[in-house]
Amino acid sequence: MVFVGFPTWGMQLPPPMKSFLRQYNLSGKTVVPFNTNGGYGIGSTFETVKELCPNSNVLEGFTMRGGSERDGQLLVIEGDKAKEAKTAVGKWLRTINVLK
Ligand SMILES: Cc1cc2nc3c(=O)[nH]c(=O)nc-3n(C[C@H](O)[C@H](O)[C@H](O)COP(=O)(O)O)c2cc1C
Hints:
Blueprint: E1 2-7, H1 15-23, E2 30-37, H2 45-52, E3 57-58, E4 62-65, H3 79-95
Parallel strand pairs: 1-2, 2-3, 2-4
């Protein structure tokens, strides 16, 4: 099982992640994508993971709002946000049966 995490850039999977997924053969693996975004749309981000891992079992991805470079908010994983993220991630992991 391979967890792959990435931000969204320009409504897309960032180019370094596209290169990574093209370069490594994850055939036969379960791929678990997770994402942060700036709150203005994830576009094709998750679809591209599926396209680039055609022979993998790509589970339902997780996304949540992270920093927002547009507003100069670069570190948000603190205080209430950290708790919110922990709860949301736990719920997601149970939904996809990674956590019982
Ligand atoms: C070049 C660039 C493009 C971005 N494009 C988007 C976008 O299309 N949609 C969006 O919601 N956020 C976009 N963002 C915001 C990032 O996704 C966000 O800042 C990042 O996921 C925050 O992650 P972190 O809090 O884990 O550092 C962009 C950020 C950069 C630097």
